[in-house]
Amino acid sequence: MDSLFRGELVTKSEFINRLDEYKEIIQDDLIKEPINQEIVIEALHKLATEINKDQIIEKLLKMEMPEWAISIYIDQAIKSIEREEINKKLLRELGEKPFEWKKVTDQIEERKYPLGVIMHIGAGNALGLSALSVMEGLLTGNINILKLPEHEGGISLDILIKLVEIEPRLKPYIYVINVSSKNEEVISKLIELVDAVLVWGGDEAINALRHLTPPTIKLIEWGHRLSFAYFTKQESYELDLEALANDIVQTDQLYCSSPQCIFLETESKRELDEFAYQLFEKIKNVSSKYPSSKRSLDVQSQITWTRELVKTEEVLGEKKLYVDETKEYSVLVDYIPRLTPSPLFRNIWVMPIKRNEILNLLRKEKGHLQTVGLSCMKEDLDEMSNIFYSAGVNRVMQCGEMSSNYSGEPHDGEFALLKYVRVVNRKIAK
Amino acid sequence: MNYWAKKLFSYNKIYDQKGSEDLFLESIKESILHHKENCQMYKDLLKSENFDVECLKSINDLYKIPTIPANFLKYHEVLSVKKEDIIVNATSSGTFGQKSQVFLDKNTIKLATKMVIKMMRYHKMISLIPTNYFILGYEPIEGSEMGNVQLAQAMTRFAPAKEKVYALRPVGDKYEIDYFGIINGLKRFNRQRLPVRIMGFPSYLYMIINTMKDAGMKPLKLNKKSIVLTGGGWKKYDDLMIDKSEYYQLIEEYLGIPAENCRDFYSAVEHSVAYPECKNHHMHVPIWSRVIIRDPLTLEPLGYNKPGFLNFVSPLVSSQPISSILMGDLGVLRDGKSCGCGIETPYFEVLGRAGTAKVRSCAVAANEYIKGDQNG
Fold first, then answer.
1. Nearest residue to A32 (alpha-carbon basis) of A172, A190, A228, A206
2. Are residues B218 and B173 in the same domain?
3. ipTM for the complex?
4. Residue of B370, B322, B334 lying closest to B102 (CA atoms)
5. Last residue of a domain, one of B235, B266, B297
6. What distances in angstroms separate CA B253 from CA B192, B212, B260, B268, one per listed residue?
7. What domain range is A369 assigned to?
8. Alpha-carbon distances, residue B59 vs A45, A150, B24, B26, B34 (angstroms)
9. Tens of pLDDT, residues B308-328
């Protein structure tokens, strides 16, 4: 059994067979007062303390994540659902007592209200992310239907099963279906009845959902993003390069906030080469502390393919390749700046830039931008961050902290929870 | 400048690698020296890799030749002949938009023509019976530079053409699949009872058969001498791809063409040697090239049965320095002796493209970067 129907374990075909019934059940549940936030918070907090860490670690190991990365990953995820963190998040994103009526004028009052039913289209890239997405839907009082991502090893399902075990009152708000993205018939049927579709994934997944979702249904998109680092001209880059090497190695560049390119303000090839080599040495140091995971055939071939092109172009003097003997990591130098995705896994682009070119260069990718790891003098921070915000970047962070976050932090420039509720109002007769 | 290559391409037994080994070795050295002398970039490449042709003592040394990755040709125009000597400029249909460019001179075309004729003869595809052609590709328009279009045209010369029907027809400034014309054409060919040759992308044929199925059309019984010649891979329809044997069975069932007359072939504009399947559907390596599979991490040669990058070594092309080209395709090489078709040279299987990894990441990845060219 790999699906949940109103919190109960069922098979996928049972779920599909009950699709006709589903409409009525959902309507019955919708009319009830939305679930009390306290119940959800208490259940999540309990989940954080009771969840079987070893079981998850074992699963993640099977998915070839390195051990050191797993423990960082799990600890962060668990901390994020503890009571204190959730309270901070709720307060920041929704304000105080969002679901109570507040007077706006004499006669008018407003409150937040759940969207209703949210369909979550999970993505297999961040393990367990789909479960966290459903938790956000629960915190905002919604009924949640999760389409499980492929290649996730069942982690999200396990977590949600545990959650309804802890708090059976959450059952009516959780549906999980393990159906392929290609099964448009079932997905369309599910979408018909929801108030919003929430999609995690790349451009391709988002495009597919835009086609499947009727204009009357809200589409919330959490797409893939591209991040980079930026160095203004300075006396020494030592410390920030070391910090950046940590960002690169510890995440294997797999987060949307991980750097894929580094720009250095310079017009000198020699300066750029030195900078790249310095970074290469820093990555070497950090990599020795954090061994990389085993890479699959297709991941490795993608990396090699990019490096070979760079190596050949080096003959023409257009690019330069720094790669270690075991071919674990590399710095790819391109003497012409362009925002290019790197093949990830400790392979990073380095390019020269002039300050007056950045805006134009970044605007070409405006919808993809997320974080910049900025290295500059303190007095340049305003000018630089202004350029980046204008280009479409949302986060300006320091090197070494590109992927650190805090509870209640906006996600891609928006408060996520605020997108899962609406503001309703009413006028009271005198 | 291609003394040895001419000899190699005149050699008659096209799968006798052992017997032609010395010719191949001399030709490839000749090819490398030619490119080195006429292409600065190649000269620099050899220098940066400290390569000297004298190290090529036997066929086992071919892996030492520095490779050029195929996508290099997408961004750079590198020639080993004068520009005015280029007579064919072929572009690939580019899975991700960016098109590969290949420039061919007279010498290359001459050798390639010899090669194709020999190959078609070997595989018994030259016929004098009038034949109806059904081309699963673009109807040629003036000035078309796409390699597929040119190849498809050339391939209609091996049996006299009675009629040619095209699956993709120009509508305004783009091409559209002409389903109506296709189905009518097939029915007409079915009635005429002449041999039919179906050529082009395999995915299109698959979709056409599915359309027939969906429309409840009765299976056709095309002339038993009909031939299906597909190439170019499934491209953006990779997710539709079905198992080879299932695919050929479907063709046999719905078109009446025996599976052994269905031959897919691997070809890449960046390489220009074509590899048709034998009757057992294996792509054997002919005398004009050698295939090396390289480790995805180290690029060291791997031998049989291990997956890695496809690397082709061939003296065919004199216009561009691609004596040894590293393809973006992953493949595996098999010992050909067990095939049983009569050809004993190794054969390779294509496993997919490098650079389409589905990475567990929320970072924008190179391969999913959708720009304006989703239909690439």
1. A172
2. yes
3. 0.88
4. B322
5. B266
6. 19, 12, 13, 30
7. 226-398
8. 67, 45, 8, 10, 19
9. 999 999 999 999 999 999 999
Q: Does A49 touch chain B (CB under 8 A)?
A: no
How many domains, chain A?
2
Minimal Cβ distance to B69: which of A260, A309, A341? A309
If one counts the domains in chain B, the total is 2
How far apart are the C-alpha atoms of B363 and A348, rounded to whole Å? 13
Predicted model pTM: 0.89
Write the CA distances from A369 to A87, A336, B155, B331, integer angstroms.
29, 20, 48, 35
Backbone angles phi, psi at B349, to 5 degrees: -120, 140
**A157 contacts A148 by C-beta, under 8 angstroms:** yes
Task: Enumerate the residues of chain A whose CB falls inside 8 A of the CB of residue B355.
Answer: 301-302, 305-306, 343
Tell me if B328 and A368 make a contact (CB, 8 A cut-off).
no
Q: Which of B34, B11, B204 is nearest to B105 (CA)?
A: B34
**First CA to last CA distance, chain A:** 56
Tell me if A407 is assigned to some domain.
no
pLDDT of B95 above 50? no
Question: pLDDT grade, residue A369 (50/70/90)?
Answer: very high
**CA atoms of B286 and B19, how far apart (whole Å):** 12
Q: What SS3 class is residue A258?
A: coil
Q: Which of B287, B289, B255 is nearest to B272 (CA)?
A: B289
Measure the CA–CA gap between B18 and B24, rounded to whole angstroms: 10
Domain-located, residue B128:
yes
Which of B69, B360, B367 is nearest residue A312 as measured by Cβ atoms? B69
CA distances from A375 to A236, A241, B16, B342 (A): 11, 9, 63, 66
Please provide residue B159's backbone torsions phi and psi, each rounded to the nearest 5 degrees.
-150, 135
Contact B362 A313 (CB under 8 A): no
Q: Is the pLDDT of residue B202 over 80?
A: yes
Which of A125, A298, A308 is nearest residue B326 as measured by Cβ atoms?
A308
Query: B325: domain CATH number?
Result: 2.30.38.10
The residue to which tokens 């492929």 are assigned: A150
The CA-atom distances, in angstroms, between B41 and each of A335, B44, B72, B91, B200 are 18, 5, 12, 21, 35
Alpha-carbon Rg for chain A, nearest whole angstrom, is: 24
Q: Identify the closest residue of chain A to B70 by CA–CA distance.
A: A309
